[in-house]
Amino acid sequence: MPPVARGVFSSERLPLVEHYAARLADDGVVRGLIGPREAPRLWARHLLNCGLLAEHLDPEVSVADIGSGAGLPGLVVAIARPDLSVTLVEPLLRRTTFLEEVVEDLGLTNVAVVRGRAEELAGDGEFDVVTSRAVAPLGKLVRWCLPLTAPHGVVLAMKGASAAEEVERDAAAVRKAGGDRPTVIELARDGIDDPTWLVRVARRPQGSVGSRGARSRAQKKRR
Predict the structure, then answer these.
(1) Measured between alpha carbons, how far is 55 from 170 in angstroms, rounded to an integer?
(2) Which of 4, 159, 216, 221 could join 163 via S-S bond, C-beta 3.0 to 4.6 A?
(3) Distance between CA atoms of 71 and 87, rounded to whole angstroms?
(4) What is residue 122's DSSP assignment?
(5) Nearest 5°: phi and psi at 152?
(6) What is the rounded distance in angstroms from the CA atom of residue 5 to the CA atom of residue 16?
(7) Handedness of CA 101, 103, 106, 109 (dihedral sign)
(8) What angle, rounded to 10 degrees, do the helices at 14-23 and 93-106 form?
(9) 25-49 pLDDT, tens per residue?
(10) Where does 5-222 sit in CATH, by number?
């Protein structure tokens, strides 16, 4: 565990993060949930960045983590922030089995594990925040995730160094899906060598006109 971890996770929650890291480095590798090369760099490339994401969430909000995989970032967020209600959404049985085992092992009472895909859950619940990490290109991701958010909700997607380029590339697709203009936030801290970028997409305010065609139709109605 690098020293910087003590500045990202509270002293009360750090033992749980350490236990989770041990499960990832052992069972996670054996069961094919993470690659063997990732085990030595779990803190630098995965856990710390997910912990920084948790700092950007308001108190007591509901969170859905789409394509949670081995629990990144959703399980880390749930560990770091016991005030949040976190739902881990993952379609593969072997992954949901691992997630359920870890949740029970750590004694987490603020986590639910759901086997399924984001597009299958639309309308089943409204979350304040929908997170994801390395799931899909931004345009497709927003199309899947935005329907799961409450009217005031946001999509928070963890991306790599090309986040800004992806935002520009998928701007039209994000808007078509009902998203407002994305903002990019760097998740960085002294002592963390592998920063991550967080792309935030809120719902576009109702009444906002999304295309030239829509504006034209509105003008015709007024006539």
Answers:
(1) 26
(2) 159
(3) 10
(4) T
(5) -95, 5
(6) 12
(7) negative
(8) 140
(9) 999 999 999 988 888 889 988 999 9
(10) 3.40.50.150
